[in-house]
Amino acid sequence: LKIGVLLSGSGSNLQAIIDAIAAGRLNAEIRVVISSRPDAYGLVRAKEAGIQTIALSKDVYADYDMANEAIAAELVRAGCEYVVMAGYMRMVTDSILMAFPDRVLNLHPALLPSFKGAHAIQDAFEAGVKVTGVTVHFANAEYDKGPIVAQRAVEVAEDDTLETLEEKIHATEHELYPYVLQLIAENRVTVGADRKVHIS
Ligand code: GRF
Protein backbone atom coordinates (compact mmCIF):
# COMPACT_ATOMS: atom_id res chain seq x y z
CA LEU A 1 0.00 0.00 0.00
CA LYS A 2 1.53 3.29 -1.08
CA ILE A 3 0.59 6.12 1.24
CA GLY A 4 1.21 9.81 1.68
CA VAL A 5 1.05 11.23 5.20
CA LEU A 6 -0.19 14.74 5.97
CA LEU A 7 0.75 16.24 9.33
CA SER A 8 1.20 19.49 11.20
CA GLY A 9 2.89 18.55 14.44
CA SER A 10 4.82 16.01 16.47
CA GLY A 11 4.14 13.08 14.17
CA SER A 12 3.93 10.38 16.82
CA ASN A 13 1.35 8.62 14.66
CA LEU A 14 3.66 8.86 11.67
CA GLN A 15 6.27 7.22 13.89
CA ALA A 16 3.85 4.43 14.81
CA ILE A 17 3.26 3.80 11.10
CA ILE A 18 7.01 3.84 10.36
CA ASP A 19 7.61 1.41 13.23
CA ALA A 20 4.79 -0.92 12.15
CA ILE A 21 6.24 -1.08 8.63
CA ALA A 22 9.73 -1.76 10.01
CA ALA A 23 8.37 -4.50 12.28
CA GLY A 24 6.59 -6.19 9.36
CA ARG A 25 3.15 -5.58 10.89
CA LEU A 26 2.15 -3.22 8.09
CA ASN A 27 2.65 -3.91 4.44
CA ALA A 28 2.94 -0.32 3.26
CA GLU A 29 5.33 2.22 1.90
CA ILE A 30 5.28 5.89 2.88
CA ARG A 31 6.01 7.70 -0.38
CA VAL A 32 5.92 11.25 0.97
CA VAL A 33 5.24 13.20 4.17
CA ILE A 34 3.71 16.64 3.67
CA SER A 35 3.54 19.15 6.51
CA SER A 36 1.46 22.29 6.79
CA ARG A 37 4.21 23.69 9.03
CA PRO A 38 7.92 23.84 8.19
CA ASP A 39 8.85 23.33 11.88
CA ALA A 40 6.73 20.23 12.50
CA TYR A 41 8.74 17.57 14.34
CA GLY A 42 7.06 14.98 12.12
CA LEU A 43 9.33 16.17 9.30
CA VAL A 44 12.38 15.26 11.37
CA ARG A 45 10.98 11.78 11.99
CA ALA A 46 10.30 11.34 8.27
CA LYS A 47 13.80 12.45 7.27
CA GLU A 48 15.35 10.10 9.83
CA ALA A 49 13.40 7.27 8.22
CA GLY A 50 14.61 8.33 4.78
CA ILE A 51 11.19 9.44 3.57
CA GLN A 52 10.71 12.28 1.11
CA THR A 53 9.33 15.37 2.86
CA ILE A 54 7.56 18.47 1.64
CA ALA A 55 6.81 21.49 3.81
CA LEU A 56 4.59 24.07 2.26
CA SER A 57 5.30 27.65 3.19
CA LYS A 58 2.85 29.99 4.89
CA ASP A 59 2.49 31.93 1.65
CA VAL A 60 1.17 28.87 -0.12
CA TYR A 61 -1.10 28.09 2.82
CA ALA A 62 -2.52 31.59 2.79
CA ASP A 63 -4.58 30.42 -0.16
CA TYR A 64 -6.43 27.30 0.94
CA ASP A 65 -7.40 26.08 -2.50
CA MET A 66 -3.94 26.67 -3.89
CA ALA A 67 -2.40 24.72 -1.00
CA ASN A 68 -4.76 21.83 -1.52
CA GLU A 69 -4.09 21.74 -5.25
CA ALA A 70 -0.34 21.74 -4.61
CA ILE A 71 -0.68 18.92 -2.06
CA ALA A 72 -2.89 16.84 -4.36
CA ALA A 73 -0.36 17.22 -7.16
CA GLU A 74 2.51 16.13 -4.90
CA LEU A 75 0.57 13.11 -3.61
CA VAL A 76 -0.21 12.02 -7.16
CA ARG A 77 3.36 12.65 -8.29
CA ALA A 78 4.66 10.51 -5.42
CA GLY A 79 2.43 7.64 -6.54
CA CYS A 80 0.27 7.54 -3.40
CA GLU A 81 -2.81 5.33 -3.37
CA TYR A 82 -4.10 6.53 0.00
CA VAL A 83 -3.73 9.74 1.95
CA VAL A 84 -3.24 9.40 5.70
CA MET A 85 -3.87 12.43 7.87
CA ALA A 86 -1.95 12.18 11.12
CA GLY A 87 -2.37 15.30 13.19
CA TYR A 88 -3.01 17.42 10.13
CA MET A 89 -4.66 20.54 11.48
CA ARG A 90 -6.07 21.71 8.18
CA MET A 91 -9.16 20.91 6.23
CA VAL A 92 -8.64 18.92 3.05
CA THR A 93 -10.69 20.30 0.20
CA ASP A 94 -12.04 19.01 -3.09
CA SER A 95 -8.80 18.92 -5.03
CA ILE A 96 -7.44 16.27 -2.65
CA LEU A 97 -10.76 14.51 -2.00
CA MET A 98 -11.53 14.20 -5.72
CA ALA A 99 -8.06 12.91 -6.55
CA PHE A 100 -8.44 10.28 -3.77
CA PRO A 101 -12.16 9.46 -3.43
CA ASP A 102 -12.80 7.44 -0.23
CA ARG A 103 -9.04 7.17 0.06
CA VAL A 104 -8.29 9.96 2.52
CA LEU A 105 -8.11 8.77 6.11
CA ASN A 106 -8.26 10.83 9.27
CA LEU A 107 -7.56 9.99 12.88
CA HIS A 108 -9.65 11.62 15.58
CA PRO A 109 -8.97 11.39 19.33
CA ALA A 110 -12.58 10.74 20.40
CA LEU A 111 -15.49 8.48 19.54
CA LEU A 112 -17.15 10.33 16.66
CA PRO A 113 -19.73 11.72 16.26
CA SER A 114 -19.04 12.87 19.83
CA PHE A 115 -16.46 15.56 20.47
CA LYS A 116 -15.63 16.75 17.01
CA GLY A 117 -13.08 19.51 16.62
CA ALA A 118 -9.54 20.35 17.57
CA HIS A 119 -9.81 19.86 21.39
CA ALA A 120 -11.55 16.52 21.50
CA ILE A 121 -9.61 14.93 24.36
CA GLN A 122 -10.04 17.93 26.62
CA ASP A 123 -13.69 18.35 25.66
CA ALA A 124 -14.40 14.71 26.51
CA PHE A 125 -12.48 14.98 29.79
CA GLU A 126 -14.32 18.12 30.82
CA ALA A 127 -17.68 16.60 29.91
CA GLY A 128 -16.94 13.88 32.47
CA VAL A 129 -17.55 10.98 30.10
CA LYS A 130 -16.55 7.59 31.45
CA VAL A 131 -15.64 6.21 28.05
CA THR A 132 -14.03 8.03 25.15
CA GLY A 133 -11.69 6.71 22.50
CA VAL A 134 -10.25 6.94 19.03
CA THR A 135 -11.81 6.99 15.57
CA VAL A 136 -10.34 6.35 12.13
CA HIS A 137 -12.62 7.63 9.39
CA PHE A 138 -12.58 8.61 5.76
CA ALA A 139 -12.45 12.33 5.29
CA ASN A 140 -15.07 14.16 3.32
CA ALA A 141 -15.94 17.81 2.82
CA GLU A 142 -17.51 18.05 6.28
CA TYR A 143 -15.11 18.23 9.19
CA ASP A 144 -14.89 15.00 11.26
CA LYS A 145 -17.93 13.54 9.49
CA GLY A 146 -16.84 10.96 6.90
CA PRO A 147 -17.59 7.22 7.02
CA ILE A 148 -16.17 5.58 10.15
CA VAL A 149 -13.67 2.79 9.52
CA ALA A 150 -12.77 1.74 13.07
CA GLN A 151 -13.08 2.85 16.68
CA ARG A 152 -11.48 1.84 19.95
CA ALA A 153 -12.84 2.71 23.35
CA VAL A 154 -10.68 4.17 26.11
CA GLU A 155 -12.02 4.21 29.67
CA VAL A 156 -11.66 7.31 31.77
CA ALA A 157 -10.53 6.11 35.18
CA GLU A 158 -11.39 7.85 38.44
CA ASP A 159 -7.80 9.00 38.89
CA ASP A 160 -7.19 10.07 35.27
CA THR A 161 -6.03 13.61 34.67
CA LEU A 162 -6.20 15.27 31.28
CA GLU A 163 -2.55 14.34 30.83
CA THR A 164 -2.95 10.65 31.64
CA LEU A 165 -6.05 10.47 29.45
CA GLU A 166 -4.08 12.03 26.60
CA GLU A 167 -1.39 9.39 27.04
CA LYS A 168 -3.95 6.59 26.88
CA ILE A 169 -5.61 8.07 23.80
CA HIS A 170 -2.31 8.47 21.98
CA ALA A 171 -1.20 4.93 22.84
CA THR A 172 -4.50 3.66 21.45
CA GLU A 173 -4.06 5.74 18.29
CA HIS A 174 -0.60 4.31 17.77
CA GLU A 175 -2.07 0.80 17.74
CA LEU A 176 -5.26 1.47 15.83
CA TYR A 177 -3.95 3.48 12.87
CA PRO A 178 -1.35 0.95 11.65
CA TYR A 179 -3.90 -1.84 12.22
CA VAL A 180 -6.48 -0.09 10.03
CA LEU A 181 -3.89 0.62 7.35
CA GLN A 182 -3.03 -3.06 7.26
CA LEU A 183 -6.73 -3.92 6.75
CA ILE A 184 -6.71 -1.50 3.82
CA ALA A 185 -3.48 -3.00 2.48
CA GLU A 186 -5.24 -6.38 2.54
CA ASN A 187 -8.15 -4.89 0.53
CA ARG A 188 -10.59 -5.64 3.34
CA VAL A 189 -12.11 -2.17 3.68
CA THR A 190 -14.87 -0.94 1.38
CA VAL A 191 -17.34 1.92 1.51
CA GLY A 192 -20.79 0.60 0.64
CA ALA A 193 -23.60 2.22 -1.33
CA ASP A 194 -25.03 3.08 2.12
CA ARG A 195 -21.88 5.16 2.73
CA LYS A 196 -20.99 2.87 5.62
CA VAL A 197 -17.65 1.14 5.84
CA HIS A 198 -17.64 -2.63 5.60
CA ILE A 199 -14.72 -4.75 6.72
CA SER A 200 -14.38 -8.27 5.40
C1 GRF B 1 -3.61 12.93 17.38
O1 GRF B 1 -4.15 12.96 18.66
C2 GRF B 1 -4.70 12.88 16.35
O2 GRF B 1 -5.82 12.16 16.76
C3 GRF B 1 -5.05 14.32 16.19
O3 GRF B 1 -3.83 15.01 16.28
C4 GRF B 1 -2.90 14.24 17.07
C5 GRF B 1 -1.66 14.05 16.27
O4 GRF B 1 -0.58 13.64 17.05
N1 GRF B 1 -5.77 14.52 14.94
P1 GRF B 1 0.81 13.29 16.36
O5 GRF B 1 1.26 14.51 15.55
O6 GRF B 1 0.62 12.09 15.47
O7 GRF B 1 1.74 13.01 17.48
UniProtKB/TrEMBL annotation:
Whichever gene encodes this chain, its name is purN
Primary role: Catalyzes the transfer of a formyl group from 10-formyltetrahydrofolate to 5-phospho-ribosyl-glycinamide (GAR), producing 5-phospho-ribosyl-N-formylglycinamide (FGAR) and tetrahydrofolate.
Q: What is this protein called?
A: Phosphoribosylglycinamide formyltransferase
Q: Catalyses which reaction? A: N(1)-(5-phospho-beta-D-ribosyl)glycinamide + (6R)-10-formyltetrahydrofolate = N(2)-formyl-N(1)-(5-phospho-beta-D-ribosyl)glycinamide + (6S)-5,6,7,8-tetrahydrofolate + H(+)
Q: Which GO terms describe its biological process?
A: 'de novo' IMP biosynthetic process
Residues of the active site: H108
Q: What is the lineage of its organism?
A: Bacteria, Bacillati, Actinomycetota, Coriobacteriia, Eggerthellales
Q: A single GO molecular function, which one? A: phosphoribosylglycinamide formyltransferase activity
Q: Which organism is it from?
A: Slackia piriformis YIT 12062
Q: Site Raises pKa of active site His: list residues.
A: D144
Kindly list the GO CC terms recorded for this protein.
cytoplasm
Transferase as a keyword? yes
What metabolic or biological pathway is this protein involved in?
A: Purine metabolism; IMP biosynthesis via de novo pathway; N(2)-formyl-N(1)-(5-phospho-D-ribosyl)glycinamide from N(1)-(5-phospho-D-ribosyl)glycinamide (10-formyl THF route): step 1/1
Q: Which residues form the Formyl transferase N-terminal domain?
A: 2-181
What EC number(s) does the entry state?
A: 2.1.2.2
